């Protein structure tokens, strides 16, 4: 088995087609588990079997904890995507970003606009050894490039439908 490799910098090349062009897709299914409630006791499984996690309601929301939750999964996905985009852009621009870290803090709470629920996400990037103005420029470029940052800023194309 070979060593793990980052994607090629050529993935940064702009696409000029007329429609969305899928490069990778996946499907995750959540079932309700013991409590019959995906968030409280569910199981999340990907179609290829690589993801298989028990979901548990955090104690702050009245659960027992003891498993991951949607906010942690979203924070991990956002941080991983942003980190990957950051390192690709840094590589293309010949900027050394050794020991770069991306922390994403996600909060689930009440929405004052409609009284229901919303999420907030705060992204903190650590770029030790990179001159501050250069680091700021790299972070701004990554924010424009990273699909998760774009999604949280502009929304996501989404279709919600009942299965036949």
Written account of the structure:
With 164 residues, the chain is an alpha+beta fold. The chain folds into two domains: 1-67, Single Sheet (N-terminal domain of TfIIb), CATH 2.20.25; 69-164, GMP Synthetase, Chain A, domain 3 (2-Layer Sandwich). It is built from four helices and five strands, in the order E-H-E-E-H-E-E-H-H. 16% of the residues are buried.
Query: How far do the termini sit from each other?
Result: 42 Å
CATH superfamily of the largest domain: K homology (KH) domain
Shape label? globular
Query: Class of the largest domain, according to the CATH hierarchy?
Result: Alpha Beta
Largest sheet: 3 strands, antiparallel
Number of domains: 2
Strand content: 15-25%
Helix content percent band: 25-40%
Count of strand segments: 5
Q: Give the averaged pLDDT, no decimals.
A: 95
Any guess at the CATH architecture of the largest domain?
A: 2-Layer Sandwich
Largest sheet: spatial strand order: 1-2-3
CATH topology of the largest domain: GMP Synthetase, Chain A, domain 3
Category from helices, strands and their pairing? alpha+beta
Q: Please tally the helical runs, counting DSSP H or I stretches of 4 or more residues.
A: 4
Oligomer: single chain
Order of helices and strands: EHEEHEEHH
Low-confidence stretches: none
Provide a brief overview of the structure.
Pfam families: OsmC. The protein has 164 residues and is of the alpha+beta class.
Q: Layout of SSEs?
A:
Blueprint: E1 28-31, H1 38-41, E2 43-46, E3 52-54, H2 70-92, E4 101-110, E5 117-126, H3 132-145, H4 147-154
Antiparallel strand pairs: 1-2, 2-3, 4-5
Protein name: Organic hydroperoxide resistance protein OhrB
Family: Belongs to the OsmC/Ohr family.
Pfam families: OsmC
């Amino acid at each position: 088995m070979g060593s793990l490799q980052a994607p090629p910098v050529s993935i940064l090349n702009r696409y000029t087609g007329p429609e969305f062009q899928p490069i990778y897709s996946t499907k995750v299914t959540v079932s309700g588990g013991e409590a019959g409630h995906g968030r409280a006791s569910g199981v999340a499984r990907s179609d290829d079997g690589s993801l298989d996690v028990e979901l548990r309601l955090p104690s702050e929301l009245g659960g027992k904890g003891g498993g991951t939750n949607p906010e942690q999964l979203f924070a991990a996905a956002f941080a991983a995507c942003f980190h990957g985009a950051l390192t690709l852009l840094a590589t293309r621009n010949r900027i050394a970003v050794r020991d770069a870290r991306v922390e994403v803090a996600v909060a689930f709470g009440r929405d004052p606009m409609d009284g229901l629920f919303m999420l907030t996400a705060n992204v903190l990037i650590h770029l030790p050894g990179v001159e501050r103005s250069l680091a700021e420029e790299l972070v701004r470029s990554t924010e424009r490039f990273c699909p998760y940052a774009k999604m949280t800023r502009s929304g996501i194309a989404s279709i919600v439908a009942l299965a036949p």
